[in-house]
Fold each of these.
Amino acid sequence: MTGDLVSRRDRNPETLFASALEGDRTALARLLSLIEQGGDAARTIGRLSYPRGGNSYTVGLTGAPGAGKSTLTSSIIGHLRSQQLEVAVLAIDPSSPFTGGAILGDRVRMQDHATDPGVFIRSMATRGHLGGLSLAAPEAIRLLDAIGRLWVLVETVGVGQVEVEIAGKADTTVVVVNPGWGDSVQANKAGLMEIADIFVINKADRKGVDETRRDLEQMLDLSDLPHEAWRPPIVPTIGSTGEGVPALWDVVKQHREFITTSGELDRRRRFRLREELREIVARRLEQRAREICTGERWDSLQDGVIGRTLDPWSAADEMLKAVGA
Ligand SMILES: Nc1nc2c(ncn2[C@@H]2O[C@H](COP(=O)(O)OP(=O)(O)O)[C@@H](O)[C@H]2O)c(=O)[nH]1
Ligand SMILES: [Mg+2]
């Protein structure tokens, strides 16, 4: 009985949000779980977070599985912590068979920072289908923003269309490749080229760095970058030792400066919000469609279509009348 009361209070988004604002990490972790699950609690969290946000800056790291994103992220955390900067990390994992085991690996690797109060690390998996993540990820980022994390790092696997889209939603997107990337078939190359603000050639301790740099330069030459726009720099790193990480971070800061002063950051954020809003509306309509496609009316329209007294389009029109669409 008492246990029930406690767990109910523990799941109350308002209470959790207030605690998270005061630095309670368990409350923050619970809020992120609620966001992951979607539903009413997630909406409440969104309403609480949104007015408090707008201060943090998001850096996305994406690339093929095994490229060294988590290792690199860990080194970046170390670099930021050496300057007393606080950071939150969201590792987004599509729970595919390829990366199913990676969450544990990420945790182990990032464990160096597990007890540091200036660092908050969270893996986020998809429940069900990927579409849910395209709404859950920005909501999670807004929550981290609302509780005052000025730097939010987001690690995503750059394999499929949706993952690449999510990766492209960061303010600065870092695409991580390895020497010999030209031979790799795992990454969505065209998609990654499109979203890259910065290229990292990680595992620069291996041979083939120069060839990979040449390949990337050539691809950049062929792409139609707007005149005088930012040309994505190429930075070699060794994630495991942290070599090249300060140089990478300098470039991240330069990019931030560039898109802030050029107005590109505002344009990107506006575009993202518009897309998200559209997606929310689409999800709501989808939900509504599931709700109205049941019951007597639905059955009789179905019978009409099966009996060929009604065509499917007219039947759909009839159903949509119910929602005034
Ligand atoms: N040789 C070498 N190995 C690295 C480097 N960075 C990461 N690795 C290793 O590459 C493997 C995959 O790294 P991980 O960070 O999990 O990749 P992720 O899947 O992109 O997050 C691990 O065994 C790392 O230790 C590097 O710069 N050089
Ligand atoms: Mg990883």
Amino acid sequence: MISEANYHPSTEMLKKFTAGSLLSGLNVAISAHIELCETCRHKTSKIEAKAAIDWLQTNDDQKQNDFSGLALDIVNQPQIEKPREKEAILDQIHMLDHSVSLPKVLAKAASQGLVWKQLGGGINQALMHLDDETQCEFIYMKPGSQTPMHKHQGSETTLVLDGSFNDELGHYQRADFIYRTEKDMHQPRSEEGCLCFSVLDSPLTFTKGLARLLNPFFKYQFRRSAAGRGI
Ligand SMILES: [Zn+2]
């Protein structure tokens, strides 16, 4: 299950992750990457240890406030539901000729049920609802497929779960964590096929050829999935 990743979340992102200040979609992507990446697991433990030391060095009044806040947080916690017995956890996704084991955090999220939809060009998508601000999805690229050239209005986070893909900036395989911002324009393609988990915080904009005609559709789709989640 452990692979050596070449692309990792930034230190800044891991700090936000340990502080719990990221949106759920991104949180799940980082958590799944950490499950697959020993380097980031160590880094995250160090960040947590440093945060604990920093806290111990703060003045006593601040600590008192933190303790009161913590006590209040505990009191305000919703009752944790006991897991239902025999609750089905989807821990594998079945591809054409093999199965892919999912990191635990994704297996749990995917157990809400995956509905696959063909987007054309050998690209398949299964949307998941993890929070109201991001669009989270599994993307399966068939061998030899490529997405249209596109850029982002916001960020796009991609975690590779199986196979590999390339774009203008690199070659990515299992456990790699790729973060693209609105400045980046790229065209992912996959020779051997690829399963990814991806988090978008705004719609894609296609920049070339006929795919530009898809823009209204993709915006509509994003808005619709956002509307479906009550935002
Ligand atoms: Zn890593």
